[in-house]
Amino acid sequence: MITQILAKVLPVLVMIALGRICATKGILNDDQHAGLKNIIGDILLPVVLFQAFFTAEYGRRMLLVFVLVFAGYGAALAAGYGLRRFVKPYDRFMPLLMTSAEGGMLGYVLYALLCGADQTKTYAMVDIGQTMFAYTVFLTALKAAGGEKMTPQFIVKNMLTSKACIGMLLGIVLGALGVHKAIDGTAAGEIVTSLLSFITAPTSALILIVMGYQLHVSRALLRPVLTTMGLRLGVLAVVCAAVSGILFAVIPFDKGLLLALMLQYTLPAPFIIPLFADLGDDAEYVSTTLSLGTVLAVVLFFFLAAFSLA
């Protein structure tokens, strides 16, 4: 059992450690790190998302998961507004750190290690609700926290210009139309599967190296950061229990789907927060929370790996 758990967890720890070594030893500089992130964000991640949604199973189950996950993150955001007084004076962006998750850059990587790269379609069922929440409600609240006005036009434009979102939407359209089922088992299907697998193969390693490179901890902010992380974990544990309870009361129990839900609720908040808002004096608080949230996700991944093998 221990050997099987380590086989899933050690690759994550080693690649993150290599990322830190790249930062401390100067193997990578900030420009090279930015270049790696561009390759991941503009090429690899869109293909990962396309593959996951292209091969996903569409129907009542996915619709139910979508609604529950979307509503669950809405409840977590509302809880964040109610609890933000506990981290004053860093309460402006605290509610945003309580909801949504970094599924794209971290979720698919960890789920592939848990259940196999060919099973990310199960994680995609959970992530579609999170992604839609992130590009609508979350972005609106984020812009408002940054003092900006959000418009429906901005949301639509952002979704249609985000390469990761384009990959997801294209996968949804073709998957829902049954293109994957039509070519599955044919020569064309074999070629498409081989091509997608080859392109996405280095994604996990590169993403974890990037994560390790950008890990940053400010000791002066540990109290509000740890408070935020504790509140997030507690709120999302309740959300996970509620979503899972409702879901498996309606559909048959699926351990792979439960693992996807559990993983989703252990992930840190989305890394797009610094990209879409002027954080001002809260920048270091947000950065430290996201960094330690990544570390916590890896720690909790150890327990998920044990559960997956039970």
How would you describe the overall organization of this protein?
This protein has 310 residues and is mainly α. The protein contains 14 helices and no strands. Helix 1 (2-24) runs antiparallel to helix 14 and helix 11 (222-250) packs across helix 14 (283-309). The chain is 76% helix and 0% strand.
Alpha-carbon distance between the two ends? 9 Å
Q: Sheet with the most strands?
A: none
The shape is globular
| Radius of gyration, CA atoms, in whole angstroms | 19 Å
- Share of residues in helices: over 70%
Write down the secondary-structure element order.
Answer: HHHHHHHHHHHHHH
Averaged pLDDT? 87
The number of strands is 0
Number of helices: 14
Q: Give the strand content.
A: under 5%
Compact description:
With 310 residues, this protein is mostly helical. It contains 14 helices and no strands.
Properties at a glance:
single chain; mainly alpha; globular; 310 residues
Topology diagram in text:
Blueprint: H1 2-24, H2 30-54, H3 60-83, H4 103-115, H5 120-145, H6 152-161, H7 163-176, H8 179-183, H9 187-200, H10 203-214, H11 222-250, H12 255-264, H13 273-276, H14 283-309
